[in-house]
Amino acid sequence: MALIWNRGIDWDEEDWREEAACRNADLEFFFPIGVTGIAIDQIDAAKRVCQMCDAVEPCLEFALATNQESGVWGGTSEEERRKLRKSWLAARRQTLLLQKEHTKQSL
Ligand code: SF4
User: Does the N terminus or the C terminus of the chain have fewer Cβ atoms within 10 A?
Assistant: First the structure.
C-alpha cells in the first residue's frame, strides 16, 4: 500500500515532541526486538510511559500518517497500529474529500 503524505500538515507546528514523555526514557522499551518474551514486558513498559504523555494524540497521528511500522508510538504497538491504520486512512480520505467539496462550493 502506498503511503499518502499530506504536505498540508506541519507536524512541528505545535512541536509535540517537546511534550514527549519518552524524551529521556530508555528507547529500548519503545523499540523492542520482536513481540514475544521480554519484548512483551518492554512494550508494556513503553505503553505505561505513553499513558502519562501529553503528546499521545499527535504522536499517534504522526505514526499513522508516516506509517511508522516499528516500535511503540502514541500508546500503540506495531500490531495495534496496523489494525488502526486502515480505519485512519479511510477517515483521512473522507476528510480530504469533504475539504475538496467544500473548496469547490466556495469557488
Ligand atoms: S505517546 Fe508515547 S511514544 Fe509518543 S511521545 Fe508520548 S511517550 Fe513517546
Answer: C
Average pLDDT over residues 60-66: 93
* Domain residue limits, the chain: 19-106
Q: At residue 2, what are phi and psi to the nearest 5 degrees? A: -75, 145
Ligand 1 centre to CA of 65 (Å) is 15
- pLDDT on residue 13: 59
pTM: 0.80
3-state DSSP assignment of residue 20: coil
CB distance 27 to 51 below 8 Å: no
Question: Whose Cα sits closest to atom 5 in ligand 1?
Answer: 20
